[in-house]
Amino acid sequence: MKRIAVLIAAVALTLAGCSGTAGQNAAPGQNAAPGQSAAPGQTAGGTTTVRVAHVPSTLFSPLYIADAKGYFTDNGLDVQLEAVQSGQDAVPLLASGRLDALVAGFSAGMFNARNEGLEFQIVGSMGRQTGELDNSPTSMIAAQPQYADGSLTRVADLRGKRIAAAGGPGATGGFLVASILAQADLTLTDVEIINISTPDMPNALSTGAVDAALISAPLSERVVNDGAGTVIGVPDAGVSSTGVMYSPDFAATPAAQQFFDALVRGAADLQGEGATDEENLQILAQATSQDIEVLRAAPKYTFDAKLAPYPDTIDQMEEIWMAGGQINYATPLGAAAFVNDAFTAAAP
Question: What is the pTM of this model?
Answer without folding.
Answer: 0.87
